[in-house]
Amino acid sequence: MRASRLRSQALAAFAAASLFAVGCGGSDEEDIKDAIKEIAAAAKDKDYGKVCDGFTDKVRKQFESRGRQTGGGDCAKFLQKLDKAGASKRIGAPDNVEFEKVTVKGDSATVKIKDQPQPTKLVKEDGDWKVGLE
Predict the structure, then answer these.
(1) Which of 13, 35, 57, 112 could link 101 by a cystine bridge, Cβ 3.0 to 4.6 Å?
(2) What are the per-10-residue average pLDDT scores of the chain (134 residues)?
(3) pTM (2 d.p.)
Protein backbone atom coordinates (compact mmCIF):
# COMPACT_ATOMS: atom_id res chain seq x y z
CA MET A 1 0.00 0.00 0.00
CA ARG A 2 2.72 2.49 0.98
CA ALA A 3 4.75 1.60 -2.14
CA SER A 4 1.82 2.23 -4.46
CA ARG A 5 1.07 5.53 -2.69
CA LEU A 6 4.67 6.66 -3.13
CA ARG A 7 4.59 5.57 -6.77
CA SER A 8 1.40 7.60 -7.32
CA GLN A 9 2.99 10.59 -5.63
CA ALA A 10 6.11 10.18 -7.72
CA LEU A 11 4.11 10.06 -10.94
CA ALA A 12 2.18 13.16 -9.94
CA ALA A 13 5.36 14.94 -8.98
CA PHE A 14 7.15 13.80 -12.10
CA ALA A 15 4.32 15.01 -14.29
CA ALA A 16 3.60 18.32 -12.62
CA ALA A 17 6.34 19.20 -10.23
CA SER A 18 8.05 22.41 -9.38
CA LEU A 19 11.73 22.81 -10.18
CA PHE A 20 12.54 26.10 -8.50
CA ALA A 21 11.37 29.66 -8.54
CA VAL A 22 12.74 31.39 -11.58
CA GLY A 23 13.81 34.38 -9.53
CA CYS A 24 12.60 36.94 -12.01
CA GLY A 25 11.13 39.04 -9.22
CA GLY A 26 7.54 38.22 -10.15
CA SER A 27 4.78 37.17 -7.81
CA ASP A 28 4.90 33.81 -6.05
CA GLU A 29 2.05 32.63 -8.29
CA GLU A 30 3.97 33.47 -11.46
CA ASP A 31 7.18 31.97 -10.08
CA ILE A 32 5.31 28.76 -9.27
CA LYS A 33 3.78 28.56 -12.75
CA ASP A 34 7.16 29.17 -14.39
CA ALA A 35 8.80 26.57 -12.17
CA ILE A 36 6.21 23.92 -13.05
CA LYS A 37 6.73 24.60 -16.75
CA GLU A 38 10.49 24.27 -16.26
CA ILE A 39 10.25 20.92 -14.54
CA ALA A 40 7.82 19.69 -17.19
CA ALA A 41 10.47 20.62 -19.76
CA ALA A 42 13.18 18.83 -17.73
CA ALA A 43 10.99 15.73 -17.49
CA LYS A 44 10.24 15.81 -21.19
CA ASP A 45 14.01 16.13 -21.87
CA LYS A 46 14.61 13.20 -19.49
CA ASP A 47 16.83 15.34 -17.27
CA TYR A 48 15.97 13.35 -14.15
CA GLY A 49 18.57 15.07 -11.96
CA LYS A 50 17.01 18.45 -12.71
CA VAL A 51 13.58 17.04 -11.90
CA CYS A 52 14.88 15.73 -8.54
CA ASP A 53 16.34 19.16 -7.79
CA GLY A 54 12.75 20.36 -7.78
CA PHE A 55 11.78 18.20 -4.81
CA THR A 56 12.04 19.19 -1.17
CA ASP A 57 14.78 17.40 0.72
CA LYS A 58 12.18 15.18 2.39
CA VAL A 59 10.59 14.11 -0.90
CA ARG A 60 13.95 13.53 -2.57
CA LYS A 61 14.97 11.28 0.35
CA GLN A 62 11.71 9.32 0.02
CA PHE A 63 12.37 8.76 -3.68
CA GLU A 64 15.98 7.78 -2.98
CA SER A 65 14.78 5.28 -0.38
CA ARG A 66 12.26 3.85 -2.85
CA GLY A 67 14.99 3.67 -5.49
CA ARG A 68 17.18 1.61 -3.14
CA GLN A 69 14.24 -0.71 -2.39
CA THR A 70 13.64 -1.31 -6.09
CA GLY A 71 17.16 -2.26 -7.07
CA GLY A 72 19.45 0.59 -6.25
CA GLY A 73 19.83 4.09 -7.43
CA ASP A 74 19.22 7.62 -6.38
CA CYS A 75 16.24 9.87 -7.03
CA ALA A 76 17.16 10.37 -10.69
CA LYS A 77 17.48 6.62 -11.33
CA PHE A 78 14.15 6.02 -9.60
CA LEU A 79 12.49 8.59 -11.89
CA GLN A 80 14.18 6.99 -14.88
CA LYS A 81 12.56 3.67 -13.89
CA LEU A 82 9.18 5.39 -13.61
CA ASP A 83 9.72 6.95 -17.01
CA LYS A 84 10.37 3.54 -18.52
CA ALA A 85 6.99 2.59 -17.08
CA GLY A 86 5.41 5.42 -19.09
CA ALA A 87 5.40 8.41 -16.74
CA SER A 88 6.66 10.93 -19.31
CA LYS A 89 3.90 9.99 -21.74
CA ARG A 90 1.54 11.80 -19.37
CA ILE A 91 3.47 15.05 -19.72
CA GLY A 92 2.26 17.49 -22.32
CA ALA A 93 4.16 20.35 -23.90
CA PRO A 94 5.50 22.54 -21.07
CA ASP A 95 4.18 25.72 -22.69
CA ASN A 96 0.68 24.25 -22.88
CA VAL A 97 0.24 23.53 -19.17
CA GLU A 98 -3.14 24.88 -18.11
CA PHE A 99 -3.38 26.10 -14.53
CA GLU A 100 -6.85 25.96 -13.01
CA LYS A 101 -5.94 27.40 -9.61
CA VAL A 102 -2.86 28.44 -7.64
CA THR A 103 -3.28 28.98 -3.91
CA VAL A 104 -0.35 30.42 -1.95
CA LYS A 105 -0.33 30.55 1.85
CA GLY A 106 2.98 31.78 3.17
CA ASP A 107 5.67 29.27 2.27
CA SER A 108 3.29 26.63 0.92
CA ALA A 109 1.17 26.44 -2.19
CA THR A 110 -1.27 24.17 -3.95
CA VAL A 111 -1.56 24.10 -7.72
CA LYS A 112 -4.41 22.49 -9.63
CA ILE A 113 -3.39 21.71 -13.19
CA LYS A 114 -5.99 20.83 -15.79
CA ASP A 115 -6.27 17.09 -16.48
CA GLN A 116 -4.22 16.17 -13.38
CA PRO A 117 -6.29 14.22 -10.82
CA GLN A 118 -4.47 15.57 -7.76
CA PRO A 119 -3.25 19.07 -6.99
CA THR A 120 0.50 19.56 -6.69
CA LYS A 121 1.75 20.78 -3.33
CA LEU A 122 4.75 23.08 -3.17
CA VAL A 123 6.89 24.40 -0.35
CA LYS A 124 9.29 27.30 -0.38
CA GLU A 125 12.59 25.77 0.72
CA ASP A 126 15.72 27.92 0.96
CA GLY A 127 13.93 30.59 -1.07
CA ASP A 128 12.95 28.26 -3.93
CA TRP A 129 9.58 26.66 -4.67
CA LYS A 130 9.89 22.87 -4.51
CA VAL A 131 7.49 19.95 -4.72
CA GLY A 132 6.52 18.83 -1.25
CA LEU A 133 4.20 15.84 -1.07
CA GLU A 134 4.02 15.87 2.69
Answers:
(1) 112
(2) 50 44 64 84 88 89 87 84 70 74 94 89 90 73
(3) 0.73
